[in-house]
């Protein structure tokens, strides 16, 4: 992996921050359309964070297999 690329853990943290920000924006949004849009963005960030967790697990398993 390139040293300039963010790690899986850094990407997960970024997605968590994005999700929390969108949930807060949805809470404060006035028109229902804006609330729904922020909710969808928050859901997408949560989904991506979940996939990054799976990626991190796979990377750990691969590292353990390489050590064996």
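Q: What amino acid sequence fits the structure above?
A:
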């Amino acid at each position: 992996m390139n040293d300039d690329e963010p790690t899986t853990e850094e990407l997960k943290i970024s997605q968590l921050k994005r999700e929390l920000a969108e949930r807060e924006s949805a809470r404060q949004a006035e028109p229902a359309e804006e609330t729904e849009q922020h909710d969808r963005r928050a859901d997408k960030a949560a989904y991506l964070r979940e996939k990054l967790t799976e990626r991190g697990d796979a990377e750990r398993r691969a590292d353990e297999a390489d050590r064996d």
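Q: And what stands out in the fold?
A: DSSP finds two helices and no strands in the chain.
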